[in-house]
Amino acid sequence: MNQLALAANHGQMAVLWPGGCDSFPNSDDTDHVCMTSETRLKFLCDWIELHEEVESPGDLLILLGALLVRPLFWMWAGLSLWRLDYVE
User: Fold this and answer.
1) Beta strand spans in the chain (E)
2) Does any domain span residue 10?
3) How many independent structural domains does the chain possess?
4) In a domain, 25, yes or no
5) pLDDT band for position 87 (cuts 50, 70, 90)
6) How many whole angstroms separate alpha carbon 17 and alpha carbon 53?
7) What is the DSSP code (8-state) at residue 33?
8) Under 8 Å between Cβ of 44 and 5
9) Which of 10, 17, 87, 23 is nearest to 55 (CA)?
């Protein structure tokens, strides 16, 4: 999802910054730009405010995947071992 947003916006991730483009932090970060009317695929860009940060739907899916890796691995391992008991 993030790659689609980057490709549509010439390699930069647009950010819907709280307070608008005037309060967008001026830094050496060339990967993020303020979201404007020219931004494409806005729903895939950074617009979800979480605490002090702005995240994209793709970022949230990456976070969810990272949180679920270990529990799902152990569930898979347990089910695999459980199934071995029933194979003749």
Assistant:
1) 13-15, 32-34, 48-50, 53-55
2) yes
3) 1
4) yes
5) low
6) 9
7) E
8) yes
9) 17
Rounded Cα gap, residues 61 and 59, in angstroms = 5
> How many Å apart are CA 56 and CA 74, to the nearest integer?
29
Q: Is residue 81 part of a domain?
A: no
Q: Is 13 helix (H, G, I), strand (E, B) or coil?
A: strand
For residues 46 and 9, what is the distance between their CA atoms, to the nearest angstrom?
12
Distance CA 62, CA 30 (A): 22
Q: Report the pLDDT averaged over residues 52-73.
A: 95
Do 9 and 41 touch, CB atoms closer than 8 A? yes
Q: Report how far residue 2's alpha carbon sits from residue 7's, in angstroms, rounded to the nearest whole number.
A: 9
Range of the domain at 22: 2-62
pTM for this structure?
A: 0.76
The verdict on residue 87 lying in a domain is: no
